[in-house]
Amino acid sequence: MSKLSQRLAGICAAFATTLLLAFPAAAEDPTADTVLATVNGVNITLGDIIVTRDGLPDQYRKLPDDVLYKGILDQLVQQEALMQSLGSTLTKKDTLALSDARRNYLSNVALEAGIADAVTEDAIQKAYDAKYKSAAPSLEYHASHILVDSEDKAKALFKQIQDGAKFADVAKANSTDGSAASGGDLGWFGLGAMVKPFEDAVVAAKVGVVTGPIKTDFGWHLILVTETRNAAAPAFADVHDELAKQTQKDAIAAFIKSVTDKAKISRSDVVVDPALIKDLTLLSK
User: Fold this and answer.
1) In terms of Cα–Cα distance, which of 10, 16, 13, 17 is closest to 2?
2) Are the CB atoms for 174 and 146 separated by under 8 Å?
3) Domain 138-230 has CATH 3.10.50.40
4) How confident is the model over 204-226, as a mean pLDDT?
5) Number of helical H runs and strand E runs in the chain
6) Is pLDDT at 163 greater than 70 in this prediction?
7) Domain ranges in the chain?
8) Is 139 helix (H, G, I), strand (E, B) or coil?
9) What is d(CA 214, CA 227) in angstroms, rounded to the nearest whole number?
10) What is the mean pLDDT of residues 226-246?
11) What is the 3-state secondary structure (H, E, C) of the chain?
């Protein structure tokens, strides 16, 4: 080999070494313990990045992987350096905040594990059957009303109807709400759709007989129930998500109760002014 060839070979070898230093080789079979950086001897691992990414809001997790990788690694390095700069001088507030964060995180871990198998299709179907198929049929009501601003006005209109005026005509001429245009017709509704005094009057009313005056927060009502019918159960698909949320809510409440019932809990007799929860100066005493 000529001297020129040897020199070129040496330059190429040096350039290749520079490239390897600038671009480290990909890790073989990386694990959560694979070290990506160290800060004063403390390791930042791939697992640290995975956990941090998993806790990000959705809009950030949708960023490209290479952007997140670099951003999170830089953040963890900076945070570790900042944390170490404190040394061992933690305040009481710092210690309590760390304890609270740990308790909050681990209680959620326990809760997620405790209800992991609670919200199943079978459980949702059972909730549907219990609420709609096994329950006694409820009534729906078709009613009309006349709404006015005083009891005296309602009584005067009631007398007009007793004297032969048609309910719908009186409603169109006098009712102060949007149903006036349709003769006071409120359509079909079930229990829970109307305010309590109005609903109670509807339930107690006889079909075809005007009831009132009834006072609510909206004013004074005359009510005419024209029809009733048994309420049809909603389709399973229409209430699936609502029942799933309720099933989860019930499972959470049941699991929390079971855990706290097993725990040995005692509450102090010490009386503390509730206003003290705002006093941060207590943390420095």
Assistant:
1) 10
2) yes
3) yes
4) 97
5) 10, 6
6) yes
7) 3-89, 138-230
8) strand
9) 19
10) 92
11) CCHHHHHHHHHHHHHHHHHHHHCCCCCCCCCCCCEEEEECCEEEEHHHHHHHHHCCCHHHHCCCHHHHHHHHHHHHHHHHHHHHHCCCCCCHHHHHHHHHHHHHHHHHHHHHHHCCCCCCHHHHHHHHHHHHHCCCCCEEEEEEEEEECCHHHHHHHHHHHHCCCCHHHHHHHHCCCHHHHHCCEEEEEECCCCCHHHHHHHHHCCCCCEEEEEEECCEEEEEEEEEEEECCCCCHHHHHHHHHHHHHHHHHHHHHHHHHHHCCCCCCCCCCCHHHHHCHHHHHC
d(CA 104, CA 106) in angstroms, rounded, equals 6
Instruction: Give the span between the Cα atoms of 87 and 101, in whole angstroms.
Output: 20
> For the chain, what is the mean pLDDT?
89
pLDDT at 134: 74
> CA 243 from chain center: how many Å?
14
Residue type, 241: D
Residue with tokens 């929860």: 277
